[in-house]
Amino acid sequence: MCGLTRSLAVAVWLFVNVGFASAQQSAPTKTTAQKTGMSDAAYIAKALRAAPLGVAKGAGVARIDKNGNMQTLRDSKNGFTCMVMVGNIMCADANSMTFFGATMKKQTPPDKLGITYMLRGDQGASNTDPSATKKTADNHWVVTGPHLMIVGAGVKDLGLPDSADADPTKPYLMWPGTPYAHAMIPVGGGPAHATAAPPASDKQEMKEMK
């Protein structure tokens, strides 16, 4: 789950387990924005860049502050929820959120098709240790450029390369040999795109989504 390091997995777990309830009970506040260092408007714009324009238009946006409190900044109209966490941005459907929640809790994930977009790439993750938070000499750290992740529905049977030292410029299986294996599908560029500045077209895309 490239880009979904332990910190991001915590965010997903919070969203799946407590986020929906707390989000309905509290509205976005200026205090939350101050604590996280980004205004709600800026956060929403950044989070939505994770998905294609057609998905982003109807996607919801969730935010977790430094105290672990979850807020829904924008309701989802298409089942996708976008988030910003640890330098990564992602937009996942409900099945993917459940899958990542099971990963965090080390439970058996449901075998349901799920899709997550990370069209701005990620900051990297261990391809052998789902709980790793940083690169080490032997944890096979992989940084992937713009991509989407597919979980469930027999991704292990797609015949994708399952080497621990994955080539992130080609489709591969992340966390092979574990219940949390999922397909990583690059959609353009390479690892360098993971930290590239957002293209100028993003501003125009945001205008079109309003």
Task: Explain what this protein looks like in three dimensions.
By secondary structure, the protein is of the alpha+beta class. It has one domain (6-195). It is 29% helix and 21% strand. The protein is built from 6 helices and 10 strands, in the order ααααββββαββββββα. The protein has an 8-stranded mixed sheet, sandwiched between helices. The protein has a two-stranded antiparallel ribbon with strand order 6-7. Helix 1 (6-25) packs across helix 5 (94-105). The longest helix has 20 residues, at 6-25. Residues 1-10, 13-36 and 189-210 have low confidence and may be disordered.
Please outline the helices and strands.
Blueprint: H1 6-25, H2 30-36, H3 40-48, H4 53-56, E1 60-64, E2 70-74, E3 80-85, E4 88-93, H5 94-105, E5 114-118, E6 125-126, E7 141-142, E8 147-151, E9 172-174, E10 182-186, H6 201-209
Parallel strand pairs: 1-3
Antiparallel strand pairs: 1-2, 3-4, 4-5, 5-8, 6-7, 8-10, 9-10
Helix pairs in contact: 1-5
